[in-house]
Design goal:
Layout: E1 29-32, E2 35-36, E3 43-44, E4 61-64, E5 99-102, E6 108-111, E7 129-132, E8 141-146, H1 148-157, E9 166-174, E10 180-186, E11 189-195, H2 196-203, E12 217-222, E13 231-236, E14 241-250, H3 259-265
């Protein structure tokens, strides 16, 4: 199902932006870029296959694409269709064993395609994706994606991963808006947050642009052990916050050469900036 983008050129030389606390090795590192997804979903992490599959569970990377077709063999797959949109969600489902908790009814939806004043598929994405809508416009609503049970039970599925925490998370953020924020929690403690306005300012993107690589971005976050999180919160106070291809990496996996070096080996041109993430 390989397809090149119709209009938006994929950033093969995507801006590589590191945000770290100055002189502090304990800070999380954020990079922008990934690979073109060959399953028609736009962009995905370099830590999974380009068609959003994984080779084995023991690799320690897991992907949620919101598509039934890419459920991970060997994992109990919920195939939860309760957030699907009538007549808009063929083949869609939450297909990994995660606890999803919207703050109100209809805050979370899973679908394919775009609809004016409802949601815009991330650039190049012709498959299923998730999006948030506020219960009341201008009043923040959120969706929690909780990995606690997943981390507790992964050892019973793959013994080598027992006792893991999450030290990598990647996601495809579509048509970024200033009213969208991703927050990362360790239980009830906020570890880090990333605001849409921050990324748009760094990359020179335009809010709500449905095609540009500067506002349809694959975001990679590498956490240190003391920043390990178990709950992701997507917050929005506007029409929609669209996201797809969520990839997590566990600490007990076999770690290859640093991703940053792999990017440089491919000729990625880096733009570095040091600053603290929002708290």
């Amino acid at each position: 199902m390989t397809r090149l983008f119709k209009k938006a050129k994929f950033l093969s030389a995507a801006a590589l932006v590191a945000l770290t606390a100055s002189q502090q090795i304990s800070a999380a590192t954020i990079t922008f870029g990934g690979q073109a997804a060959t399953d028609d979903s736009g962009k995905t992490s370099v830590n999974v296959n380009s068609n959003n599959t994984i080779n084995t569970i023991s690799d320690g990377f897991f992907v949620e694409t919101f598509d039934v077709a890419t459920a991970i063999p060997g994992l109990p797959s919920a195939n939860d269709t309760s957030y699907n949109v009538t007549n808009k969600s063929t083949g869609c489902a939450i297909n990994s064993p995660l606890l999803v908790q919207p703050s109100a009814t209809n805050v979370l939806n899973v679908r394919s395609g775009s609809e004016r004043n409802v949601a815009a598929a991330p650039a190049g994405n012709d498959t299923c994706y998730a999006y948030t809508t506020p219960d009341t416009v201008d009043t923040p609503s959120f969706v929690d994606i909780d990995y606690t049970d997943f981390l507790t039970n992964i050892g019973s599925i793959e013994a080598s991963l027992a006792g893991s925490s999450i030290d990598y998370l990647g996601f495809y953020w579509g048509s970024i808006d200033t009213y969208n924020t991703f927050e990362f929690y360790s239980d009830n403690t906020l570890v880090k947050s990333i605001a849409g306005e921050e990324i748009l300012n760094l990359l020179g993107g335009v809010e709500g642009d449905k095609e540009s690589d500067k506002s349809n971005v694959y975001v990679n976050i590498d956490f240190t052990i003391d920043e390990a999180f178990n709950r992701l919160r997507v917050v929005s106070s506007g029409i929609a916050g669209e996201f797809d291809n969520i990839v997590v990496g566990l600490t007990k996996r076999d770690v290859p050469a640093p991703t940053g070096l792999a990017f440089l080996g491919l000729g990625l041109m880096g733009l570095a900036l040091r600053k603290k993430l929002q708290k």
